[in-house]
Amino acid sequence: MWMLSWLPFILLSCLFVYLIVQIWHQSLGRWERLKEFCLLMFIWVLTAFCYTPTAYNFSGTVITDYIQWGPVKMTLIPFQHLDTEFWLNILLTVPFGFLLAWNYPHVPWRRTILLGLITGLTLECGQFVLDWLVNIGRWVEVDDVLTNCAGVIVGFIIFRGLSRMPGWRWLTR
């Protein structure tokens, strides 16, 4: 059963290898290929953090207000604990927001916010489904959706700020 819980991540990793090969064979310039490769590799890192049967506890806080629905533990009340784990969850998706902005620098703010929300929802819904299917033992939290969204937005802001500074304009190539 333990190996079964790793199967989704192994399959996703195979998909990422296929996508990397596809990027390599595209008729893109080296710079565009590098940008797409970096984005794809960070998405793989996110899947490693979120879709593997591992537990990370940086806060030591015990969450008592949760709902158990089958094998899934969910917290639906946001901002119960503004601890280290809360802030690290924002930092987790900052590079993703930066890399999205690097690859697609002309995305408007509304779409940026929507991409952040979709990121958080995709990660948490994926954990929910994988907990049901193969019991990866992860929590599904509303806080994670909000913090992942915030991290993507912060990453976009950092990119926009850096790309306007002298010496950093190479980011917009």
From TrEMBL:
Organism domain of life: Bacteria
Keywords: Membrane, Transmembrane, Transmembrane helix
Coiled coil ranges: none
Domain VanZ-like positions: 39-160
Segments traversing the membrane: 6-25, 37-56, 86-105, 112-133, 145-163
InterPro entries in the record: Teicoplanin_resist-assoc, VanZ-like
UniProt cross-references to Pfam families, sorted A to Z: VanZ
Keyword flag Transmembrane helix: yes
Name of the protein described by the UniProt record: VanZ-like domain-containing protein
